[in-house]
Each structure stands twice: as C-alpha cells, then as structure tokens.
Design a protein that fits this description.
Blueprint lengths: L1 H15 L8 E2 L20 E6 L5 E4 H5 L4 E8 L4 E12 H8 L7 E6 L3 E6 H4 L5 E6 L2 E2 L9 E3 L12 E7 L6 H4 L18
C-alpha cells in the first residue's frame, strides 16, 4: 500500500507538471519489451554503419564508436503500451556527433534506424537533432544490459519508446519518409506521446 501511494503521489506530480502524457501511468520499474531475440554481442565483429544521403558514409568499429564524445542526459521515457518512466539518466554518444561526421545532404529529411535482429524504425532528421537524443551506452549509471538494448540503444525521449530502438547498428539517411517495422503493421509514423499518436489515423 505504501508503494502504491508513493507511485500515485509521483504520478499526480508529473501530471501537474505536464510531464505525464494522456493515457500513460507511472512505473517505478523498467519493463522489458522488444520484438525478436537478443543476439550475442561480439565486439570484434560489431560495427555501426551510416549510409544514404550523406557526404561521408561511415563504418565504425566498437572500439572507434567508444572513443566518440559522450554526454549525460536526464529524460522521461514513454512506452506505447501506456507506462512512463521518469528522470532516466542516460550516457552515450549524441546523435549530432554522428551527423556532424556523416554530413547529411540537404535533401536528407528522414532517417531509417537499423537494429538487430532486422528491426527498423523511421524518425524525422529534425527530431534526431534535438540536444537530448543520443546513442545510449549506459543507464543510471550502469552499462546497458542486453535486455534493455546493450551494447547500443537509440534514445529519442520526446517520442514513444518504440522509436528508441534497441541494439542499433546503423542509420540510413533518406529523402522521403518510409515506415519501419512497427509502422508497417499500423503504428503511427511519428509517435508523439502527448497527442497519443499510437496507431495510424490518430
């Protein structure tokens, strides 16, 4: 009962602050949800590739990726299944650092994110350029665990969490928007939690 009261008090506070999207409930845990199996991580074979509408396509090894500049972000996290986890501490490589290296062409307006095992999700480039969007290596402040996306997870705090793909392996900068894995089966192309863009037509 004590923990239920504590959770409700915090939920009311976040709602009053305008941080709890409609239809969401606070969780004090971190549920594990994903599609597909977790693949074994081999740092000697892992790579991160950037291609498409960029001046400088990239292929980074795990060692090279780990040497990129990192930052710490504190942000909320909203799952389309209606739970929200607040004040998450993420540490990782800012998306902007990758964009600066790849130098997107002017016609690049969207990005298809590629992840293991064959997962994709689409995000507008402008959204990925937000200051708090990063490729997370750690969470509060431990290294990510495999079930939460290790070795590398994209974090896009202002969109539903299916856009924050686990096990990211690369980016394809594209001109026209295209649906990713969940978008092909009816999820919203954008996914704003504050307007409840869960599914197409919303």
């Amino acid at each position: 009962m004590f923990f239920d009261n504590e959770r409700k008090e915090k939920e009311n506070l976040y709602e009053a602050e305008g941080r709890l999207p409609p239809g969401q409930s606070l969780t004090l845990k971190w549920p594990v949800l994903h599609e597909g199996r977790i693949l074994a991580f081999d740092p000697d074979r892992w790579d991160f590739q950037v291609r498409g509408q960029v001046e400088n396509p990239l292929r980074l090894t795990w060692r090279q990726f780990g040497k990129l500049p990192q930052l710490r972000v504190v942000a909320d996290f909203h799952c389309v299944t209606a739970w929200s986890k607040f004040d998450n501490e993420w540490t990782g490589v800012p998306f902007r650092a990758i964009a600066e290296m790849a130098r997107p062409l002017p016609k690049a307006r969207h990005v298809m994110v590629h992840a293991d095992p064959g997962y994709t999700t689409n995000v507008p480039l402008d959204d990925l350029m937000h200051d708090n969007v990063l490729f997370a290596l750690a969470h509060a402040p431990e290294p990510l665990t495999p079930e939460h996306g290790a070795p590398l997870r994209l974090v896009v705090p202002h969109l539903y969490a299916w856009k924050s793909a686990k096990w990211v392996r690369g980016l394809d900068f594209i001109e026209e928007d295209r649906p990713g894995y969940w978008e092909k089966v009816g999820y919203h192309m954008y996914g704003d939690p504050f307007t409840e863009q869960r599914y197409r037509g919303q």
